[in-house]
Amino acid sequence: MSVCTSEIAVTGAEYLAAMTVRASDRRARAAFQSLAMDVAGPAATVFDFGAGPGVDARCYAEHGRRVVAYDIDPGMAAFFAEYCQDLIRDERVELHTGSYQDFLARGAFCQQRVNLVTANFAPLSLITDLRELFACFAWMTRPDGAVLASVLNPYFLGDLRYGWWWRNAYRLLRDGHYSLPGAQGNIVRRGLDDFSRQCAPHFVLQRVFAAPSAVSLSTRGYAAPTGRGLACLRLTACRFMFLLFRKPVRRSASHADGLLV
User: Fold this and answer.
1) Which residues contact 242 (CB under 8 A, 6 or more apart)?
2) Domain limits of the chain?
3) How many Cα atoms are found within 13 Å in the side-chain-facing hemisphere of 119?
4) Strand, coil or helix: 108
5) Model's pTM, two decimal places?
6) CA-CA distance, 223 to 220, in Å (whole number)?
7) What are the pLDDT digits (tens) for 143-152?
8) What is the CATH number of domain 12-246?
9) Angular region, 185: left φ>0, alpha ψ -120 to 50, beta rest
10) Could you read off the pLDDT of 73-93 as tens digits, one per residue?
């Protein structure tokens, strides 16, 4: 299993070039970065999971956030270290690499709890079972912390041209997810209900955002938690969807049932 921001094995320089080819990808990245900084708030600490060549980490740090970053790929991490060397030197960015199992076992090596975990350009789509990962994210984040993830959209109408979509449509309806072989392991496409199950009990899927279309930079958020009805219709034009997970609000023993504090 691999955690990386690309579906193909490339160097950091190749990925940095490839991800700027599509105008829609450039807009999606910019929109995700803007949304992440809004969610995190000023002067926040952000954990960038599957950080790739460091583009997002650099953006967050240059806008006043402290960044802790992780990627499994040593080559990608080496490029990151060079690309963000000034920020690393100034202790505004901290970079880690290592195996995924080591990441889970070490609790992500954070010395302090972070405000927000980000995962841009679908690193979560390369993980078969997200339960352990969300448990780790829960340990890493503050009580009011959140996870913002960009994931591959199983409802994207542009994929209907491919035979693999039709072969897996029933599995999506029946199981809530399906897997396709990729260069670095299986690529998992999940429905919203499946994400809600995978993140529980540590988080709840609070908001879903349609990644920008070819003509718009804005994101439109709307309430989760299910993947049915109008939410799915709004997502059908988007290759990616942005998911915001929040820690559940705990009931206070000193308050009446039904009052959330």
Assistant:
1) 31, 32, 35, 148, 149, 150, 208, 209, 210, 211, 219
2) 12-246
3) 27
4) helix
5) 0.86
6) 10
7) 999 999 999 9
8) 3.40.50.150
9) left
10) 999 999 999 999 999 999 999
